[in-house]
């Protein structure tokens, strides 16, 4: 099935072997879908995409709510030879405009409710075609799909062809599109399926968004490749997940999932029959790891990844899952700790993590200079994460060399928020920092120097950012100061600000 298409062949193999097996139960509606039925829908979607003009190599950009139809769109894009480009559903029209202009997709798919707002944005970006897809099965693309029959002639794609582009924000300047090949996604998902022992007997609680690596390429691809099933939540829902656990075997989540679930009554009993809890995308506090073990008897398995690299390391399935560490490099992945020149450091020393393997991306979309900057000549990718490897081989991430905030598993680059704040009337300058937050891990905080006599309030700043930045990037608190602390070079001392505001959410 789809044998000439590298990634689709890997993803559809289990469906060919057991088409009747359950793939997904939609928790919102109770609807159940087998692996075979999924791929029939995917073929119809692929046919609709081809009719909409999608040719091999064309980008298919989508900003829509999580749904089975969006999964069909992802897989249908692969069958049609296209490149899937999902966008966070929280992005504002202005943010979407940037991605469309940069990626020049052949088709942009959005939620019917946002069509009026996004149609002018897509037109301005020169996008040839706009179709809509609603979580409730509505929209022009849903109609087009309904008019097609299964039995699509899959487009041949090799391992090095692109399967997806996912944007990741940059420490400086514009967001970069990470180009992900069939080889990178296929090899990493297969490795993870086997490392974490996913089989056709697994039932995964799928409550992550499907516009990022974690929910799309880790959770979804593994379930497909294992021939297993998932309980598909439209979004995170703590009580719903507790209720689902007795019917499930595994959960994948960001640390916020685990801290929120710990506050739920009945967790210990619900978790009894579960096989595996996996955490990633942001640091899991050792304290949360221990509290989880105390409440459920399970040791959370923490792993470490990046959009550019997929998953790099994982704690072991058997053996000690060490709290506060991200485990060992995955099979086939090489990881080293280096100084700024790329020279490898001895065991126990802290440096920048560099990785190499079939999991790596193919570069940043139309940014060869930026790609070259982040790659060593010997093929290692410079992650920008700071870490060390201990004598037992466990990798620990101790911080970030890049100025990045991870809030509830979502990345926020301070520079982007600072630029938006600095552009507001009445603002002299600003510094945006991440501050420890009991629910989100880190929360975005802005420290603003107002123009003399400007009379600005935090609410004014929030209101002014509303249509510029996605909600999760907006500061949870704004502080006003007469000036920012600077070192002798004139650089803002963010560490002093982080210290000063460290207790904001305590
Ligand atoms: C929602 N809000 C947020 C966040 N999410 N603010 C800051 N950070 C966030 N992550 C805003 C909402 O707009 C809302 O604003 C308010 O906070 C409260 O929303 P709430 O209902 O509590 O949010 P939620 O819907 O429960 O979402 C929280 C969440 C969610 C469950 C943590 O953000 C989530 O699913 N995060 C996972 C993201 C993810 O998949 N990351 C993986 C990236 P207001 O009420 O003021 O309007 S892939 C990756 O990182 C690499 C590759 C890897 O290793 O995996
Ligand atoms: P993204 O750019 O969304 O792909 O996020 C990737 C970044 O998330 C990495 O570079 C790390 O800084 C961070 N990250 C992912 N998993 C972990 C983890 N288990 N512990 C600490 N940081 C993590």
Summary tags:
506 residues, alpha/beta, nine-stranded mixed beta sheet, four-stranded parallel beta sheet, 24 strands, globular, binds methylmalonyl-coenzyme A, binds adenosine monophosphate
Q: Would you give an account of this structure?
A:
The chain is an alpha/beta fold. The chain has 16 helices and 24 strands. It has a nine-stranded mixed β-sheet. A four-stranded parallel β-sheet has the order 4-3-5-6, sandwiched between helices. Strand 7 (162-168) and strand 8 form a beta hairpin. The protein is globular, with a radius of gyration of 23 Å. The model has no long low-confidence stretch (mean pLDDT 96). Methylmalonyl-coenzyme A binds at residues 208-209, 212-215, 235-236, 254, 256, 280-281, 305-307, 407-410, 440, 471-472. Adenosine monophosphate is lined by residues 168, 213, 280-283, 302, 304-307, 326, 383, 385, 397, 400, 406, 411.
Percentage of β-strand residues = 15-25%
User: N- to C-terminal separation?
Assistant: 54 Å
The largest sheet, given as strand count, sense and whether it forms a barrel, is: 9 strands, mixed
Helix content: 25-40%
Report the total helices. 16
Q: How would you sum up the global shape? A: globular
The number of E-state strands comes to 24
Low-confidence stretches: none
- Mean of residue pLDDT? 96
Which cofactor or ligand species appear? methylmalonyl-coenzyme A, adenosine monophosphate
**Lateral strand order in the biggest sheet:** 2-1-10-9-11-12-13-14-15
**Which value, in Å, is the CA radius of gyration?**
23 Å
Summarize the SSE layout with pairings.
Layout: H1 6-17, E1 22-26, E2 32-34, H2 35-51, E3 59-63, H3 68-79, E4 83-86, H4 93-103, E5 107-110, H5 115-124, E6 130-132, H6 140-146, E7 162-168, E8 176-181, H7 182-195, E9 203-206, H8 213-226, E10 229-232, H9 238-244, E11 250-253, H10 255-262, H11 267-270, E12 276-279, H12 286-296, E13 301-306, E14 310-314, E15 328-329, E16 334-338, E17 351-356, H13 368-374, E18 381-389, E19 395-400, E20 405-407, E21 410-412, H14 414-422, E22 427-437, E23 441-450, H15 458-465, E24 477-480, H16 494-500
Parallel strand pairs: 1-10, 3-4, 3-5, 5-6, 9-10, 9-11, 11-12, 12-13, 23-24
Antiparallel strand pairs: 1-2, 7-8, 13-14, 14-15, 16-17, 17-18, 18-19, 20-21, 22-23
Helix pairs in contact: 1-7, 1-8, 2-3, 2-6, 4-5, 7-8, 10-12
The chain binds methylmalonyl-coenzyme A and adenosine monophosphate (AMP).
């Amino acid at each position: 099935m789809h044998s000439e298409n590298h990634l689709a062949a890997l993803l559809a193999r289990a469906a060919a072997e057991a088409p009747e097996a359950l793939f997904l139960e939609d928790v919102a509606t109770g609807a159940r879908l087998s692996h075979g039925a999924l791929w029939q829908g995917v073929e119809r979607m692929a046919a609709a995409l081809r009719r909409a003009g999608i040719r091999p190599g064309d980008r298919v950009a989508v900003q829509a709510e999580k749904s089975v139809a969006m999964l069909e769109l992802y897989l249908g894009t692969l069958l049609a030879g296209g490149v899937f480009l999902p966008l966070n559903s929280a992005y504002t029209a202005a943010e979407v405009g940037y991605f469309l202009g940069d990626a020049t997709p052949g088709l942009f798919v959005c939620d019917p409710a946002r069509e009026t707002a996004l149609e002018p944005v897509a037109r301005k970006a020169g996008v040839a075609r706009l179709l809509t897809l609603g979580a409730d099965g509505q929209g022009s693309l849903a109609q087009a799909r309904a008019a097609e029959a299964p039995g699509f002639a899959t487009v041949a794609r090799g391992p090095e062809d692109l399967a997806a582009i996912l944007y990741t924000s940059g420490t400086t300047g514009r967001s970069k599109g990470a180009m992900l090949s069939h080889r990178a996604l296929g090899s990493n998902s297969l490795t993870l399926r086997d490392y974490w022992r996913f089989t056709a007997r697994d039932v995964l609680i799928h409550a992550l968004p499907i516009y990022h690596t974690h929910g799309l390429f880790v959770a979804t691809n593994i379930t497909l490749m294992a021939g297993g099933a998932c309980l598909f939540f439209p979004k995170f829902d703590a009580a719903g997940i507790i209720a689902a656990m007795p019917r499930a075997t595994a959960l994948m989540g960001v640390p916020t999932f685990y801290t929120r679930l710990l506050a739920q009554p009945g967790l210990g009993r619900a978790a009894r029959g579960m096989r595996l809890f996996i955490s990633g995308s942001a640091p899991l506090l050792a304290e949360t790891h221990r509290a989880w073990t105390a409440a459920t008897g399970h040791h959370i398995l923490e792993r470490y990844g990046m959009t550019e690299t997929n998953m790099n390391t994982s704690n072991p399935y058997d053996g000690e899952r060490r709290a506060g560490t991200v485990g060992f490099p995955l099979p086939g992945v090489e990881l080293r700790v280096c100084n700024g020149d790329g020279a490898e450091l001895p065991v126990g020393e802290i440096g920048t993590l560099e990785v190499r393997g079939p999991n790596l991306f193919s570069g940043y979309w139309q940014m060869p200079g930026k790609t070259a900057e982040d790659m060593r000549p010997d093929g290692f990718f410079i992650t920008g994460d700071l870490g060390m490897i201990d004598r037992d081989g466990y990798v620990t991430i101790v911080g970030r060399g890049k100025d990045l905030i991870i809030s509830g598993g979502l990345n926020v680059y301070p520079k982007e928020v600072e630029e938006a704040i600095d552009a507001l009337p009445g603002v002299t300058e600003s510094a945006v920092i991440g501050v420890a937050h009991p629910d989100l891990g880190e929360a975005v905080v802005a420290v603003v120097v107002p123009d003399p006599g400007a009379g600005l309030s935090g609410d004014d700043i929030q209101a002014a950012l509303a249509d510029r930045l996605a909600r999760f990037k907006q500061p949870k608190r704004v502080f006003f100061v007469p000036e920012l602390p600077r070192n002798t070079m004139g650089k803002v001392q963010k560490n002093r600000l982080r210290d000063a505001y460290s207790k904001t959410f305590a």
